[in-house]
Structure to design on (291 residues):
């Protein structure tokens, strides 16, 4: 999330933007018809908004348009961007943060009437058909038969995304300060040797701690963190050159190469596919070098 340099650091999340509105979990929407399973709604987030840790008795599917959402679940941070949603199983404790002006959509699923289950938070591909069906289910004038027909198609078409991105946080006191510093400023380009010296530790200790807690080397973890931040910035309308500079890359081509290593494609191709899937037309990744 594009944070303000005056913002407050929130452990395990990006730097909090100035003017962020703090909220507890909102009330669940009214239940659908007696035999229905899904109730959907949307709202526009007028200011950067953060929701404190909470859980729901219903499964939740959340997605955004015109902005980004991050969600903290235990030691993982999920990034929700255009074209993807996040499934949050009932009972899972999570916190969230949305950017100003985002169209925030969510749908709640009654567990005992939902014929599938994701045991863990899961990125969901928000195809035009799925989005249209959930918009249809947000209507308050549907009769029970129409609602059940639409829900049956939702259950049939909902699918995990091919991009299951979660940034795992170390949770190790030996290196947590490094993770927090990089969440605060992903452009910090200090080397592994410099970080170890800053911690009063050894490169070997830092390397082993990152491998053990995140499954990644320090360099891989920092690259993953920067790609998560890039997805937020690109979704919020920044171009490739601006994102490259904000993330500490010497050249946009270096950022594009790093993005490709993680996502398998360039930012332009990735967001072009997301726009085509969602039916939107926009160009947040114009930068000259993103062919």
């Amino acid at each position: 999330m594009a944070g303000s340099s005056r913002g407050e650091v929130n452990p395990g999340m990006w730097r909090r933007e100035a003017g962020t509105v703090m909220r507890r979990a909102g009330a669940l929407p009214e239940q659908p018809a007696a035999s229905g399973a899904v109730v959907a709604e949307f709202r526009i987030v007028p200011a950067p908004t953060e929701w404190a840790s909470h859980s729901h008795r219903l499964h939740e599917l959340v997605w955004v348009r015109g902005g980004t959402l991050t969600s903290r679940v235990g030691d993982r941070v999920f990034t929700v961007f255009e074209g993807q949603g996040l499934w949050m199983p009932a009972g899972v404790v999570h916190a969230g943060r949305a950017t100003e002006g985002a169209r925030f959509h969510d749908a709640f699923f009654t567990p005992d009437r939902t014929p599938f289950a994701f045991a863990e938070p899961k990125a969901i591909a928000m195809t035009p058909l799925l989005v249209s069906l959930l918009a249809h289910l947000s209507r308050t004038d549907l009769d029970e038969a129409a609602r059940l027909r639409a829900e049956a198609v939702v259950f049939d078409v909902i699918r995990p995304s091919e991009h299951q991105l979660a940034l795992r946080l170390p949770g190790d006191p030996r290196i947590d300060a490094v993770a927090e510093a990089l969440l605060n400023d992903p452009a910090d380009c200090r080397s592994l040797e410099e970080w170890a010296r800053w911690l009063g530790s050894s490169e070997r200790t830092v390397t082993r701690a990152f491998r053990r807690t995140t499954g990644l080397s320090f360099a891989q973890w920092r690259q993953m963190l920067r790609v998560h931040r890039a997805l937020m910035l690109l979704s919020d309308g920044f171009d490739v050159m601006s994102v490259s500079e904000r993330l500490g890359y010497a050249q946009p081509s270096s950022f594009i190469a790093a993005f490709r290593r993680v996502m398998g494609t360039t930012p332009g191709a990735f967001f072009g596919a997301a726009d085509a899937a969602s039916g939107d037309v926009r160009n947040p990744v114009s930068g000259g070098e993103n062919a």
